[in-house]
Amino acid sequence: MSNEAVIITQARMTSTRLPGKILMRAGERTLLETHLGRLAEVGVPVIVATTTNQSDNPVVELCAALDVPVFRGSENDVLERYQGAARAHEARHVIRVTSDCPLICPELIRAGLDIYLSLKSRSVYLSNAEKRTYPRGLDFEIFSRRSLDFAAENARLSSEREHVTSYIRTSMPDIHHESYTDQDDLSDWRITVDTDDDFKLVKLLIEHHRAAEMDYAALKALLKAHPRLMTINSHIQQKTI
């Protein structure tokens, strides 16, 4: 039976800046467990797309313990990995997120998905990151399986294979872009985990402020009330595509 929409999150242990970060612990859980727990609140199936590398066996084992389905594919051809995961679960639409976002907010994804589905088009790409107002670490992208298949069949550049939506965003014929934005522009904040200092911030937010239990409004209020928290990793430069 086909799924109307699924969340596919990419996860691997061989991060270039902070290897093994997704299994680092903050509070009583690993970052990946916190990430998956929050995604489960969206209310659609969640699939972890990892690699066939032996180094990612611990990811597969953790997901098995959590009863979260896994698809294993190429480390570098992430576009093909996503296509394989979407096909395996007969998805009609895909919500793409990444596992370095342990505090991703389910209510934002759900609201974005509701808008996306209301448009009733397989040629829509909706994201809260293309026109960025939300902090890094809350990113999501929504597109059709049709768009994903077309990209997987036509993308030729290595950058288009590594970065799942690059072809869809820049070269897909007749694609319609929709942006999900907030009235507050907090795009200079980082609550993603890519470096040691990113991890220090997220660990502090989870262990001392119970951020893993917060929706976006509460998380935003917390960070505005404690502006010094955001100085912990404000010097980190985001990797460029």
TrEMBL record:
InterPro entries: Cytidylyl_trans, Nucleotide-diphossugar_trans. The keyword Transit peptide does not apply. One of its GO terms (cellular component) is cytosol. Keywords: Nucleotidyltransferase, Transferase. GO terms for molecular function: nucleotidyltransferase activity. The keyword Transferase applies. This is Acylneuraminate cytidylyltransferase.
